[in-house]
Amino acid sequence: MNQKQKQIGIIAAVVILMGILFFQPIKGLINEQEETERESDGSMLVTFQSESQRAKQGLNPAIIQEITDLEASLATAETDEVKEAILKQLVEKWDSVNKHSPMGFAYEEIARMNNDPQYWLAAGDAYRTAYGAIQDTSIVFPLNSLAIHAYEQVLSQEADNIHAKAGLGAAYVSGTSNPMGGIALLQEVVQADPDHLDANKSLGLFSMQSRQFDKAIERFQKVVSLSPDAESYFYLATSYENIGLKGEAIAAFEQSKALAADPTLNQFIDRKIEELSK
């Protein structure tokens, strides 16, 4: 499944996070106003319905109506064939607006009907992309658990599925009390496929979290050589910065800026380059 980068929202201030937010996209290193939808007791109930409502916020009214109509049809569908067809339409609608959380629930519903590892894998990827764009841990951790469950369903049927191993490893590292179990899985993946993009990126992020910036640099150098993107150059630059390689950090930040083409991120990078140039 093609995992698209989430759009970078309104940024209030900038702070480098060494905890769980290292497992989010670039915006995870930017301190922005949290998105929250809390119950009265402050807890978060993450369901297909709650994530659909949250994802609809700010969308074009016409798109919201199309999705709402499909959801109404799903509720009254009488056969699995009709339900599956509607769920696939919902996947397309949510994918078109880069809303991966409800897309994950739609994929999971299809997977439950068919017990098809293809759809379990798509659900896991969607959940993982979704929690990577959210800073509210009351949403992040339930979505992480859903991703783990989905990947485990894949591996119960296809034990050597390298994509599911990489996803499960990353999910263990980023949201459980067993990060080393996740690292072991990711190491298995890169041993089988040294150029596996997702596994290398996840290992690089773990190295950043554990402040092993030299190892992070090696991982992200590999990542940008395979598939250069703004996020990976940003992490590479941050790793260089943390071990005092200012020139290399500036060069990587400039690459991130060129690939991101996002005015707000560009302003942040310009400030970082100015600081590093002193």
Give the structure's gist in a few sentences.
With 278 residues, the chain is mostly helical.
The largest pleated sheet is described as:
2 strands, antiparallel
Q: What is the helix/strand order? A: EEHHHHHHHHHHHHH
From the coordinates shown, what is the CATH architecture of the domain at 48-169? Alpha Horseshoe
Number of strands: 2
Shape: globular
| End-to-end C-alpha gap | 43 Å
CA radius of gyration? 19 Å
Name the strands of the widest sheet in spatial order: 1-2
The first-level CATH class of the domain at 48-169 is given as Mainly Alpha
How many helix segments? 13
Q: Which stretches of 5+ consecutive residues score pLDDT under 50? A: 1-44
Q: Structural class from helices and strands?
A: mainly alpha
- Strand proportion, as a percent range, falls in under 5%
By CATH, the topology of the domain at 48-169 is: Serine Threonine Protein Phosphatase 5, Tetratricopeptide repeat
Helix content: 55-70%
Overall average pLDDT: 84
Description:
The chain has helices spanning 48-56, 61-76, 80-96, 100-114, 117-131, 137-157, 162-175, 179-192, 197-209, 213-226, 230-242, 246-260, 263-276; strands spanning 13-14, 30-31. By secondary structure, it is mainly α. Among the domains are: 48-169, Serine Threonine Protein Phosphatase 5, Tetratricopeptide repeat (Alpha Horseshoe), CATH 1.25.40; 216-278, Serine Threonine Protein Phosphatase 5, Tetratricopeptide repeat (Alpha Horseshoe), CATH 1.25.40.10. It has a two-stranded antiparallel sheet with strand order 1-2. The radius of gyration is 19 Å and the shape is globular.
